[in-house]
Amino acid sequence: MTVGVLPNVPEPDEVVAAMATAGYRATELGPPGYLGRGADLRERLARAGLDLAGGFIPVRFSEPEHWEEDLAAMERTLDLFEAAGGAEAHAILADADSPERVANPGRAAEDRALGLDDRGWQALAEGVARALELAHARGFEPSFHPHTGSHVEAPWEIERVLELTEADLVLDTGHVTLGGGDATLALADWGDRVNHVHVKDIRLDVLRSVIADRVDMPEAWRRGIFCEVGSGDVDYAAFFEALRASGYSGWLVVEQDWVPGPEDDITEAAEAQARNRRWLAEHAGL
């Protein structure tokens, strides 16, 4: 949405320096190539003292006619993992955005007509199986990310993925809440299939307005639906207590979506991520 689109997106060196200064240990990849390729990627992360935690890989899973193209793009992303020396990086698989679903965020929990039909689910399961096989063949742990704007957003859709595939999950506290779920309940229900966690907060008042006004996901971002950790409505006290009890020992990746306005610069976003890191240290002991 921003890289190569908006004029004031910060340079990658600024971003990784801000992460390192805030005390993060690693980053996800972002748009393939944004942080560099080959030796440039490895050296940029090394200068900042950052590991690679993973990278987002969208695939049009329910559309077999696009699999070869999307899996080829996945191969190129995994090449970047290798270039970065990211042995612990997770291949974060997600169903690619659907125009219909981007236009209807948060509504599939109550309106199953927005979901795939049986044929679509079968295709999605076969597509996921191919992507899992590719990730494992390349030596990377795959994680399936239920994501707003895709055909796997609502809790019932996540249940179908768990039923139809062997995929483990990214538990994203913000996206699962937007989809109509609860992060702590999701951990209780699906904890044995969770192998990657995104810490993302959400404002339920904005979600309610998005659903009531029938606006799309870009407008939800503009309204600030995702916010600093601890300033939204995810019950992190309960979530982190449950996460500790579960024995989870993987990555915790902080996400706070930010689409810069014409007058914005990196300073406020960097300060917000530093506050997120301090909040986790002070309130969750992380």
Write the layout of secondary structure elements.
Elements: H1 12-22, E1 26-28, H2 38-48, E2 51-59, H3 67-84, E3 90-95, H4 99-102, H5 118-137, E4 141-144, H6 155-164, E5 169-172, H7 173-178, H8 183-190, E6 194-199, E7 201-202, H9 204-213, H10 217-222, E8 226-227, H11 236-246, E9 252-254, H12 266-284
Helix pairs in contact: 1-12, 2-3, 3-5, 8-11
Overview features:
single chain, 4-stranded parallel β-sheet, globular, 286 residues, alpha/beta
Distance between the termini: 30 Å
Q: Summarize the amount of helix as a percent range.
A: 40-55%
Number of distinct helices: 12
- Main pleated-sheet profile: 4 strands, parallel
Shape: globular
Stretches where pLDDT falls below 50 for ≥5 residues?
Answer: none
Question: What would you say this structure looks like, in words?
Answer:
The protein is globular, with a radius of gyration of 18 Å. The mean pLDDT is 95. A four-stranded parallel β-sheet has the order 1-2-3-4. The protein is α/β, with parallel strands linked by helices. It has a single domain, classed as Alpha-Beta Barrel (TIM Barrel). It has helices at 12-22, 38-48, 67-84, 99-102, 118-137, 155-164, 173-178, 183-190, 204-213, 217-222, 236-246, 266-284; strands at residues 26-28, 51-59, 90-95, 141-144, 169-172, 194-199, 201-202, 226-227, 252-254. The protein starts with 11 loop residues before the first helix and ends with a helix.
